[in-house]
Amino acid sequence: MSTAAKIILFATPVFLLLIAIELLVDRIRGTKYYRLNDSVASLSLGVFSRTHRLIILSLATIVYAWLVKALSIPQLPQDKIWVWVLGFVFYDFLYYWFHRMSHQINFLWAGHVVHHQSEEFNLSTALRQSSSGILSWIFYLPSFIIGIPPEVFFVSGALNLVYQFWVHTRHINTLGFLEKILVTPSHHRVHHGQNELYIDKNHGGVFIIWDKLFGTFQQEKKETPVIYGVRRPLKSLNPIWANVHTWSQLFKDAIHTRHWRDKFKIWFMPTGWRPKDVQKTHPIKKADLALFKKYNPATTTSISLYALVQFILTVTISTWFISVMHHSEFSLRLIFWIILTLPLITISMLLENQPRSKWLEYTRLFVTALLLFYFQDELSQLSSVLFSNLALLFYLLISFVWLTLSQPALPANNTFELSN
Ligand SMILES: [Zn+2]
Ligand SMILES: [Zn+2]
């Protein structure tokens, strides 16, 4: 496993611990910055963005390895501190431009939007990551052209990502002189705002200096409390829909428009741009921010707890499997990916109080049971305890009984939403 992958993997339990601490502080202070359904949705997207790499290799890794070999670009010395400092700062500079463009161009926003869909803002929001951002490597090519060694680049990327975790909190106000140099929680709260004043501001990853230099900086204002989320709300907890929501809108518009030029143009136009004819034939009403309400479907305690337990199991097994997966065959990785992705979908539907969600969860348990027992020989080589007959039967039986005894919320309460 590469150093960059190790950094992300070892950071994961630390992230989860810090989320638990922030949750505790939230309960003690009574700030109510955490909602179970929102956090499970955000964390599901984090898990999903990691587990899909079980079956799809990162395009960036392949492209960089090939480029370095094919072009035989002279490399800066990896054992010099200044190369690491340069690599880290330059990475953040390139990240700034990639992130800024991700907010300003339709097809890049379709990938990045996932990180911004949450209407809450807490440490769990940090792990809300897209699975469809496949072209980011293009923005980082200058790093290779100036000869930053791949190891320095990938470690810088991992450290940059890890840094961005802690700025997703409302419990830290401002941090004195650090506000001038680094991206702080206050700066990043602005970045997640959908208020007119805050939209498309503060794109830096580690350093805020890029925003100050290139005119995208905005201070957080007390008189304008941040309204978190996006102007075309997702209104769903489903991780798959979160990833395809904006893509599907762009595809629909591209199909609906009668002008061939617009069918191509739409992808590269500023975020929110729609062909003129489609604006008339398929209008989308922009929600009034003054009437903003958070999406928060009704649920019951037993369904919430059931979803939480299934989710914790999925996260634990995902983290464990990613750490051992490099020994596994592709077919086994695919099976694991299915076993770990299905609960993320059914949990979201249970928490959305969807009418058939309980039946879908029964089906998911049945499919999981079939897969687990069919592949038990291979699985028990990975862990003989986790995949023993007894452990599997215990898990399936408890899940089945718990689900059967859990009453969903009344559909009448389903439209319940929180005002900001
Ligand atoms: Zn962003
Ligand atoms: Zn963020």
Helix content: 55-70%
How is the main sheet built? 2 strands, antiparallel
For the record, the count of structural domains works out to: 3
Rounded to an integer in angstroms, the radius of gyration calculated over CA atoms is 22 Å
Q: Work out the helix count.
A: 19
How much beta, percentage-wise?
under 5%
Task: Please describe what this structure looks like.
By secondary structure, the chain is mainly α. It has three domains: 3-214, no CATH class; 251-291, no CATH class; 301-408. The protein is 59% helix and 1% strand. It is built from 19 helices and two strands. It has helices at 3-29, 36-51, 59-71, 81-104, 106-116, 123-126, 141-145, 150-163, 178-181, 185-191, 209-214, 239-256, 260-265, 276-281, 301-324, 330-351, 357-374, 376-382, 389-405, and strands at 293-295, 417-419. Strands 1-2 form a two-stranded antiparallel sheet. Helix 1 (3-29) runs parallel beside helix 8 and helix 5 (106-116) runs antiparallel to helix 12. The longest helix is centred in the N-terminal third of the chain and has 27 residues, at 3-29. The structure holds zinc ion (ZN) (2 copies).
